[in-house]
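Researcher: We're teaching a course module on how sequence relates to structure. For the next exercise, students receive a sequence and then see the predicted structure as tokens, so they can try to spot secondary structure elements on their own. Here is the exercise chain.
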Amino acid sequence: MMTAAVTRKEPVIFSQVVEALFKHAFKERLDTHTRARLKKIGIDLDHPFLVAYSVPTWFAAVGVCSEVLFPGVSNEQARYRIGRKLVDGYGQTTMGRAVFAMLRMLGWERSLGRISRGLQSGTNFLSARTRFLADGALEVTFEVMPEFHAALGPTPGIDPHFMHGNMDAMMELVGAPFTSSELQPIEPGSQRVVYVLRRPAP
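Model: And here is the predicted structure for the students to work with:
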């Protein structure tokens, strides 16, 4: 009897995201000690970036940056700030400059339909969807695609605070008419985060 081998799909973060953060957003702020810590985690800034990095490696690196670069704020707020800074760094990469120019040309409403495509240029395991609520607010949901759940196990595939900052910065970039987004309660064990963006009061 033949048995089929089951292979897990491994979630990864592509090199352009790592480059955006460490080569552009924070390059001048990483001292020798911090670079050594990152090297132990698996990100060696003295050599070319790998094609992709594991989710645990990426999360650990964001954790180091949170601790070193924003010591005076909560861990959640530090990761939010790093998420925002990633957008600045990505805009300095070759791919980022082209993507941002296109998004500005499209405008915020048409850009909403490209969120998943944008995510998949930096990761292989995230998707997004948006919908307008009855009161005119915008709901944005990010989730890990089901085929990657087995590889992640109980480990979250999304840092809700990092993603929060990332999304707020992107909404500003495309001129979306909303205030800072609100992170909705997270279900235990869920591989999904939801944000609601509301229009400013008149």
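Model: If you want an answer key for the exercise: Confidence is low (pLDDT under 50) at residues 1-6. Residues 23 and 140 are 29 Å apart (CA to CA).
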